[in-house]
Amino acid sequence: MRIGRWLRALIRPWKWPTFLIWHYRKPVPPGLCLVNWIFQRIFGVNGHIPFMVHYTSRVVGVPKIGRNVWISFAVSGGLYVQCNNGVEIGDDTIIAPGVKIISANHDLSGVDCWISGPPIRIGNLCWIAANAVILPGVTLGDGVVVGAGAVVTRSFPEGAVIAGVPAKMIRQRTGEQTHSERATAGDGERAV
């Protein structure tokens, strides 16, 4: 079936741009892909980032991201990711719109300087819901779910479900499979 699409595309050269955009950026709608590209590559908004970023988002520095995380950066608007101390995000993590990930605080002696510290580390298969804020030095284990509007000020272990201001553990997922166990089990398909 995939070979058939390639052959049809070769016969119709006027469809090449649409086919290439859709084929290589499949999870991102072609219109959004085009707008993101215009803002990022022509206007220079987040132009230093090597992957696609939503045109309403702001990324300071370059985060280290895992497999399929770029999709969240491309489709989730209103993100603010500040990587002065470093941000590491694991594979298949989902980030909703409006999330703020802030890795460094300003120094009280001047707003041009920041306080150095450990990076923010977010594990594999995490879910960060809308308008959550993750503050400096936080480490989230694999499969952590951060509730909408939560302010995460400290680290949490694998499989935690957290919410609130400041974020507290609501429950630990123990009786069911965690996301990391589901990802390694079976035929390798993502089950969320």
State the main characteristics.
single chain; 192 residues; alpha/beta; UDP N-Acetylglucosamine Acyltransferase, domain 1; 2 domains; five-stranded parallel beta sheet; five-stranded mixed beta sheet; 16 strands
How would you characterize this protein structure?
By secondary structure, this protein is α/β, with parallel strands linked by helices. The chain has 2 domains: 1-44, no CATH class; 54-184, Hexapeptide repeat proteins (UDP N-Acetylglucosamine Acyltransferase, domain 1, 3 Solenoid). It is 23% helix and 23% strand. It contains 5 helices and 16 strands. A 5-stranded parallel β-sheet has the order 1-3-6-11-14, with no helix packed on it. The chain has a 5-stranded mixed β-sheet with strand order 5-10-13-15-16. Strands 2-4-9-12 form a 4-stranded parallel β-sheet, with no helix packed on it. The radius of gyration is 19 Å and the shape is globular. Residues 186-192 have low confidence and may be disordered.
